[in-house]
Amino acid sequence: MSSESIAREVKRRRTFAIISHPDAGKSTMTEALALHARMISEAGAVHGKGGRRSTVSDWMEMEKARGISVSSTALQFNYTPTGPDGESPAPDEPNVINLVDTPGHSDFSEDTYRVLTAVDAAVMLIDAAKGLEPQTLKLFQVCRHRGIPVITVINKWDRPGQSPLELIDEITERIGLIPTPLYVPVGIAGDYRGLLDRRTGKFIKFTRTAGGSTIAPEEILSPEAALESEGDAWTAAVEESELLGEMGQDHDQEMFLAGQTSPMIFTSAMLNFGVRQLLEALVEYAPAPAGRTGIDGTERAVTDPFSAVVFKVQAGMDSSHRDRLAYMRIVSGEFERGMVVTHAQTGKPFATKYAQAVFGRDRSTVDTAYPGDVVGLVNAMALAPGDTLFIDPKIQYPPIPSFAPEHFSALRVTTADKYKQFRKAIDQLDAEGVVQVLRNDLRGDASPVLAAVGPMQFEVVTARMKAEFNVDTVIEPLGFSLARRTDEASAPELTKQRGVEVFTRSDGAILALFSDKWRLQFIEKEFPSLELAPLVAAA
Ligand code: GDP
Fold first, then answer.
1. Cβ proximity of 421 and 446 under 8 Å
2. For ligand 1, is residue 127 a contact (CB within 6 Å)?
3. Which residues 6+ apart lie within 8 Å of 43 measured at CB?
4. Which protein residue's CA is at the shortest distance from atom 9 of ligand 1?
5. Could you tell me which of 527, 501, 532 has the C-alpha nearest to residue 514?
6. CA of 42 to the centre of ligand 1 (A)
7. pTM score, whole prediction
């Protein structure tokens, strides 16, 4: 394929993730987006928890039991923008939207971090009544750290909540991101009638559909007609919009891309209000996929030969597909199924005969893909998160940093004759990045120590040990709460200390675990020459 054709494919693509606190409406919004893209004809097929039909993206038993999303998946759909009035002439080709799902629970923030290395923009979904919540804040910091531009969505506007200005103040003050509303809602939270489009001055009036299960019809009214129809609610929206203008809170593309401002939209994912506006904003403002720089400083443009980064490796999600799947985000070039690429970390060839698009339980074969797309590779035993795949010339992208673990447990196998299986299982879960695996001579190979950012990662280990390898294990929490990177020279002295234990991680790093920060501070003071470097902190 010519580089012009690749450039055209890249230009129409948008790859993003939704970051939110559990219950803000991520699953409902994902479904509403799919509905708007006409991937599904009726909502309700995907969302719904607790007794109702389960979501497409929930697949592990544990997810179903807890109603949380553990695993990451990617949803691709076409969207044809319709412009501010909903009736712009269709472009020659639709946009291609890739929505990469993020785990909902904070214990899986490391997975979320990896997912965020694969996207070009994030949608920060906020519950109108609750405002900024801890998990949103944490994930937002990751976006800031990685320079990912953020679109802010205030969801559940159909229910009573804070006022737009209160929410704007909260976001500005607490995270220093300046919201620039593209629309102002007409009607207070709980009485959502439509949106004032700040760019055209017109009123987008929504009509409820039964149960919010189909696309809500929109009617575009002139300001005069809006005043007549909505009275004071319209006047209030006009005043709010003017006030925002005076405060300089109008969309500015450069500031948005620099992570200083955030276009803001008000939605009701449940009623499908404002969802088209979100898609329009993604197409209009979110950046198209861009090239990346290798660890040796080489620039790879999107139109250069194929390269991709693995951001997630997963196995055994579904009993009908028992295999190991690596998700890669394509960085450059055209991907064609069957192509033999090189795995940068080992220099070995990797055949891509089984390339799939995966969303929840649904899988379909992928024949071609372009920068920004996410492709699942089946039976990818050799691949780990952060790895690079390429077609010559060689490129290797920087590794994804692993988080500083805060929870440490010994893992013990309870079925005596299963040691070999246990070994195999632990190696696999380690390679997938499910947990970090630490060992030392004292404990021996049969009882490794697992290190995690969130304790629920341990439950995933024991559940998968049982389900996939038929090995019974128990988790025994250890009295450590923080880790530091150390070296061979410092290890003997550290080992002598009370409340400290030294381990080697599977990637070769030497880690010292401490019972608490006071212990660490004491040792740092007492033995200033010891090497004790912090690990990358969870954002
Ligand atoms: P997630 O945990 O972020 O994926 O949240 P869900 O999509 O599962 O939504 C959590 C709850 O909020 C569910 O009961 C949804 O029906 C409800 N919900 C989601 N979006 C809206 C909305 O726009 N308005 C209202 N009223 N409820 C919503």
1. no
2. no
3. 31, 32, 35, 211, 212, 213, 214, 272
4. 25
5. 501
6. 16
7. 0.83
What is the CA(97)–ligand 1 centre distance, in A? Answer: 22
HEC string of 367-383?
A: CEECCCCEEEEECCCCC
Contact 33 CB / ligand 1 (< 6 Å): no
Ligand 1: does its nearest atom lie under 6 Å from the Cβ of 133?
A: no
> Within 13 A of 160's CA, how many CA atoms are on the CB side?
0
Distance (angstroms) between ligand 1 centre and the Cα of 213 equals 13
> 155: CA distance to ligand 1 center in Å?
9
49 close to ligand 1 (CB < 6 Angstrom): yes
Give the burial string for 347-362 (b: 16+ CB within 10 Å, else e).
eeebebebbbbbbbee
Give residue 316's pLDDT band: very low, low, confident or very high (50, 70, 90).
low
Structure tokens at 355: 């390339």
Contact 206, 193 (CB under 8 A): yes
In DSSP terms, 220 is beta-bridged to 204
Asked whether 156 lines ligand 1 (CB < 6 A), one says yes
Give nearest CA residue, ligand 1 atom 2: 23
Beta strands in 258-417 (DSSP E): 261-266, 292-293, 299-300, 307-315, 324-332, 335-336, 340-343, 348-351, 355-359, 362-365, 368-369, 374-378, 388-390, 407-413
Instruction: Give the residue, 129 or 453, on which the prediction is more confident.
Output: 129
Q: Taking each helix axis from N to C terminus, what angle separates 134-146 and 109-116, rounded to the nearest 10 degrees?
A: 40
Residue 498, token pair as written in the block: 């009370």
Q: In what order do the strands lie in the sheet with 533-534?
A: 473-477, 407-413, 449-452, 436-439, 500-505, 510-514, 482-486, 533-534
Cβ 274 under 6 angstroms from ligand 1: no
> In angstroms, rounded to a whole number, what is the distance separating the alpha carbons of residues 398 and 292?
10
> Token pair of 25, please?
């409406």
Residues in the chain: 539
**In angstroms, rounded to a whole number, what is the distance separating the alpha carbons of residues 29 and 212?**
12
Pairing of strands 95-100, 292-293: unpaired
Counting ligand 1 atoms within 8 A of each CB, the residue from 20, 27, 28, 278 with the most, and so the one to mutate, is 28
Integer Cα distance of 352 and 377 in angstroms? 7
Query: Which position has the token pair 């970390």?
Result: 345
Q: How far apart are the first and last CA of the chain?
A: 40
Query: Tens of pLDDT along 208-259?
Result: 877 666 777 889 999 999 999 999 999 999 999 999 999 999 999 999 999 9
